């Protein structure tokens, strides 16, 4: 089956003083056209590295793509030259970065930055770019676009800056939008507005979205399918309903159980994560912290296998009749 966007056997490493360390080892991930797909993992799991690998923005070296394919509309992005990628970035694939304040240039107005992106990628005159910039600001539902366009980043709130970043990402007709924790550092009410905006734009413009987050609740509000990333590996994937309501992998369960169900609830991490310092010898990457580990988990690395329908898990639990 041909997918709109597909990652196959992707392995990415970094050169260090202690040798080469692998940070991504993804068997398979596929996104259909017009779909919102969630990627969940804790800090350091490799989420942003994956996003930068897709756009070929990693510094090489020390980063090295060891093997694998990233297929977009039938094209393998791994084999593309920098010249080819410049024609793809912005026009075909765009990214919303985590921190809008560091993404926007503080010495230019947001309108000037938006116009420059449009002129560079669309090849239109300055007057036409200014018109498109106003329309794009309206698209992300910022009131009084004519006033906003002449302001500098520091004159806008965090939520307004993030909407400008979304406007820039969509200004040149991108088909795939990578949202790397777009609500990070925003308060809860602003988060809700940004999530609603992304969901609405995804439906209206029919763009595909790879939504990266460390909070399962955010992903469930936007996405249809989800993958759980742990130590650079996808350990569970499927529909949001299957994975978040019926988690199989102990890591997925631990992630969900770290979210308090009420203001009074206190989370005891000792009941969720093993702390005895057990070592892994080439087996499951979650072995050292897993409360349900078995003997074969220490030296046998599990691969993704189907549970039911599109629900897959990389865990020895559930195999051969054993229950998680």
TrEMBL record:
One of its GO terms (cellular component) is plasma membrane. One of its GO terms (molecular function) is ATP hydrolysis activity. InterPro entries: AAA+_ATPase, ABC_Ni/Peptide_Import, ABC_transporter-like_ATP-bd, ABC_transporter-like_CS, Oligopep_ABC_C, P-loop_NTPase. SUPFAM superfamilies: P-loop containing nucleoside triphosphate hydrolases. Coiled coil: none annotated. Keywords: ATP-binding, Cell membrane, Membrane, Nucleotide-binding, Transport. It is found in: Cell membrane. It holds the Pfam family oligo_HPY. It is a peripheral membrane protein. Residues 7-256 form the ABC transporter domain. GO terms for biological process: peptide transport. CDD domains: ABC_NikE_OppD_transporters. Belongs to the ABC transporter superfamily. This is Oligopeptide/dipeptide ABC transporter, ATPase subunit. It comes from Desulforamulus reducens (strain ATCC BAA-1160 / DSM 100696 / MI-1). The lineage of its organism: Bacteria, Bacillati, Bacillota, Clostridia, Eubacteriales.
